[in-house]
Amino acid sequence: MLDRPRAGYDAKGLDLGGFRLFPRLSVSETYDDNIFADESNTQDDLITSTAASLRLQSEWSRHDLRVLGQVRNQVFLDNGDQDRTEYVVRPRLRLDLAERNELVATAEQSRRVVGRDDPEDDGGDDEPTEFDRYFAELRYTHRFNRVFIGSEVSVRRDDYISSGDADRDRIQYRFGLPSGYELSAITDLKFEPFYRVRDFDDLDDDGDNRDSQAVGATVGFDTEVTRLFHVGLDVGFIANDFEDPDFDDSLDLIVDGDATWYVTALTTVKGRLAREDIASNQPGSSSRTRTTVGGEVQHELQHNILVNAQARYVQDDFRETDRIDDRAILGIGGEYLISRYVSLAADYQFEQRWSDEEDRDFTRNLVTLGLRTRF
Prior knowledge:
- The two termini are 21 Å apart.
- With 375 residues, the protein is mostly beta strands.
- The protein is 0% helix and 67% strand.
- It has one domain: Porin, CATH 2.40.160.
- It has strands at residues 14-15, 19-32, 45-58, 64-76, 84-96, 102-113, 130-144, 147-160, 170-176, 179-184, 187-200, 212-226, 229-242, 250-262, 267-279, 287-302, 305-318, 324-337, 342-355, 362-374.
């Protein structure tokens, strides 16, 4: 609903002849009552965020090229050593080949910061943990009649900045063979076997080797149950084979699902369900399983007044250890579209974590007010 066209309020972008450029700029102030997401060292602060983005989009009759560039700088009023700057550059090229075949190439180079509420954050009041991510993916899809088959290869490199985090540096390769059948104009059945290699540069602090090879497969579907209810779900398994004999090989369930219900012309409900295998930097743990269940309600009070509410539950289960983290995240927000170019936004978020590890529980409240501009 929030992404629906709104006459008189949608950004037109800048016509560059064959391309259209969409610039955005926002400034916001956030009050965070627990900036370190800590159980006992609860320090509050005001955070000034300045964010800018450029989205370049082709307007060709065939093929498609999009390039996204984003940067965000955060300045803490009383804790200057927590200041941070993140950015991302992400090009995507789609080539429409003969007979509905296509080739899609995607890349990314970004500077990221590990969030204080992330289970992999080391805690304490040290400077934020930063890392660079390099990503490339190539996907080819061939279609004949109602059948489609393809191949997909991707590589991702995470390179941490501080020398004390060298054991978190890793590279990951993934090879997939997605295929499926167009059951109808609104329903696709899908199947994808895949192979993944995860290679860490160093051993962890306990001297364990977290390198692994994994095979798996998913089956799923995308469909419109009705014109107003869309759902997609992939379910499968992943089998990890770890290099280190101290880590037990594992077979785990993986899930990836989304649903959208257009309740009325003004209200949309979205749901999310996921279960995934994630690399871990915790000593003595080979990896972790993250389960996410969430939902969001979006409503249009007026043509230029948009509100939303969301709730999310996240569980991180660390293998080979007794640590399980549970997080509950609740939020409400709204945006007032003053004109095509300017809007005001406000958000409130509450977060709480319960952990089996000592001193990892916390509660946190964040209130944000911001000004957004677009062209």
